Amino acid sequence: MGLFSKEACTFCGTEVGALKRSKLATKEFICNECKRKTNYFARMSYTSRDAARHMMDTLAQEAADFEASFDTAEGRFAKAERSFNTWDLGSKRIHYRSNTTIGAFQLNMSEMSRYEVNPVFWFDTMIPYEFKGEGDDFFSETHRSKFMDAAANHVEVDVTKGDDGKVIHCMITIPYDDACIREIKIESDTDDAAPFYDLADRINSDRRAWLGKAEFDAERKNRMQVRNLGDTAAAALKAAVSGGDATEAVKKGIDMANDIEEGKVKQSFWGKLFKK
Ligand SMILES: [Zn+2]
Predict the structure, then answer these.
(1) Ligand 1 midpoint to CA 126 (Å)
(2) H helices of the chain, where?
(3) How many A from CA of 67 to the centre of ligand 1?
(4) At residue 43, what are phi and psi to the nearest 5 degrees?
(5) Domain boundary among 212, 234, 253
(6) 167 phi and psi, to 5 degrees?
(7) One domain, residues 87 and 193
(8) Most CB atoms within 10 A, among 8, 29, 179, 208?
(9) Rounded to the nearest whole angstrom, what is the distance from the C-alpha of residue 51 to the centroid of ligand 1?
(10) How confident is the model at residue 248 (pLDDT cuts 50, 70, 90)?
(11) For residue 119, how far is its CA from the centre of ligand 1 (angstroms)?
(12) How many helices (H) and strands (E) does the chain have?
């Protein structure tokens, strides 16, 4: 198995040489053509065959859903967020946009153009990578406390200076708690660190904006659920007392609870719940 021996891609079966393939974490080979259907920032040496397949199956839909999220999000801010903003980081030009209502963002740069999908990243995953064993819960308390930490600036900039004290190299690191990605690093030889800090600030503050909205939303949903519980109990009691069907009242309460979770319910000024 030398440099010139060919190996079959585990997905498409094409026999490719060492320069046109990567080895997956699960030891199969993936050809460059198939790799371009995965996430540009995924490292194949971290990626299992199943994880690569999952990316191929889901990235395009996720990107389409992200695009559509700008249509469905309420308010003029959501519309303003749709367009990419551009940062010149030394020799690299980065385009970035986020939807702070759903808590996701996209990056784009010319190096990614050969990949089929511009992938979507999530603020609730933008925390330092931690190895997870089988059965470790994404919603574990430690994970939650990290992504709910409003004070944290997870995106960082590293600046390298030359002997004369002048900046010669900058790198922005976006941590990512995903088995295949772990972190997004963008670096460049440059004497200007300002745009790196500016982009890092922007991503950190967008994450905080999402967190503020998400907390508000969770609190609001909790209040509505408590009210629904009270309304349902009262309706069931009333039905039971008047000889009616209490199970119907309970069923309505459960439907309402599900609709609250899905954001289909609004609360009036007086606390009454209405389906949108
Ligand atoms: Zn292939």
Answers:
(1) 29
(2) 32-35, 49-72, 76-81, 141-147, 194-241, 246-261
(3) 28
(4) -95, 125
(5) 212
(6) -65, 130
(7) yes
(8) 29
(9) 15
(10) confident
(11) 19
(12) 6, 13
On the question of pLDDT at 238 being above 60, the answer is yes
pLDDT value of residue 260:
81
Q: Bigger pLDDT: 225 or 154?
A: 154
Number of Cβ within 10 Å of residue 131's Cβ equals 8
pLDDT tens digits, one per residue of 91-115 = 999 999 999 988 899 999 999 999 9
Question: What total of structural domains would you count in the chain?
Answer: 2
Is residue 265 in a domain?
yes
**How many A from CA of 8 to the centre of ligand 1?**
8
Q: How far is the CA of 31 from the centre of ligand 1 (A)?
A: 4
Could you give the percent of the chain with pLDDT greater than 70? 89
Specify the DSSP class assigned to residue 170.
E
Residue 204 CA to ligand 1 centre (angstroms):
37
- Per the structure, the complete domain to which residue 251 belongs is given by 214-275
CA of 165 to the centre of ligand 1 (A): 47
Quote the ligand 1 centre to 173 CA distance (angstroms).
30
State the distance from the centre of ligand 1 to the C-alpha of 16, rounded, in angstroms: 9
Q: What is the pTM of this model?
A: 0.77
For the chain, the straight-line distance linking the first and the last C-alpha, in angstroms and rounded, comes to 63
In whole angstroms, give the CA distance from residue 272 to residue 224. Answer: 9
Q: Is 122:171 a contact under the CB 8 Å cutoff?
A: no
The reply to whether 219 and 201 lie within a common domain is: no
Q: How far is the CA of 142 from the centre of ligand 1 (A)?
A: 38
CA angle 156–157–158, rounded 5-degree value: 125
CA of 86 from ligand 1 middle (Å) equals: 33
